Amino acid sequence: MVKQDRARRTHTLLLDAAAKEFVRHGYTGANLQRVATQASMTKGALYAHFPSKEALATALTAPFEQTWRELLHGAETAGPAAEGVLSDLVVALVTRLRTDLRFRAGFHLTAENARAEQRLPPVVEELTRALPGLVRQAQERGEVCPTRTPEALSSLLLTLICGVYYTTAQCEPDTCPAEMSAIWHLVPGSAPPDPGGEDFGATPAQGPARTGCEGPPVTARE
Question: Measuring CA to CA, which residue among 213, 13, 24, 31 is closest to residue 112?
Answer without folding.
Answer: 24
